[in-house]
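Example record for the data management plan.
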Amino acid sequence: MKTYQQLFELFTSHINEAEYGKNPKELYEPISYMMQLGGKRLRPILSLMACNLFEENVAKALHAAHAIEVFHNFSLVHDDIMDNAPLRRGKETIYKKWNMPIAILSGDLMMIKATQLLCKTNDVDIRELLNVFNNTAVEVCEGQQIDMNFETQKSVSHEEYLEMIKLKTAVLLGCSLKIGAIIGGANKEDAKHIYDFGINIGLAFQIQDDILDSFGDGSITGKQVGGDIIANKKTLLLIELIDSVHKDDQLLLEKAMKNQNDNEKIIVILSLYNKYKIQEFAEGKKEIYLKLAYEHLSKVNIEESKKVIITHTAQELMSRIS
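Corresponding structural encoding:
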């Protein structure tokens, strides 16, 4: 089994040699720019890792891993437009560096390029890969729309929120793993368990992200603590607080959510989170999904020694601080 670092170096070398097109430059330069912004490359590495569980030659999954990374970055290009985000990984977003129409069109082309890259995969039923990939692409778009709907939706249930983060975040992790496993020669049962491992890790990861936003150390995470609180974002934490708050604190919560003073707002909401043990609730939910993830991984029919690296990667993901 190759280590995470070995897979990262293999993929980085592959992607650094990639060309997406040259003319017109206004269409292709933004794609190259976006793909060179870096990042952890988590999804393509997971795909290579899943392939390596069943197959020594991970190079056969490189085109598919590349496709997944291009698709992920396509979704970020359009997310930045919808969120009016000026920066991505410390650099100008495409719509800011160029303009909105270029960002939309380049993003569209990235989705097409992702499919083309996936189709370069040899020695596997491409229809099966396309089916997994396209179903996931649909789900990611559904998750993004549901998330935007939450901004104006008066109330959101725990079930609705969990379904949204599953679609927006978790399914692409599951897809990355499943596609890699299929290319590696996994049978349908093992591929399904790898997929479900990814889904549950993704759910746990997003809940962890919600927790860090309110309770993390800003000097370590590099993020403003309480960003979700300021935006009244309907995270699992806020949903649980709204459901749990006693009548005596209801007015305090409603007033805090309307407060235009960010610092005051964060202080009040955090005090209510602490009073109603919201962090403990979220940590408990996270642990449920982690347990489910490892249960699925345990059912994959390969030697336990081969699962060490992917288990370690999941643990690193969950302990991430930024």
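Summary line stored alongside the record: The chain is about 75% helix and 0% strand.
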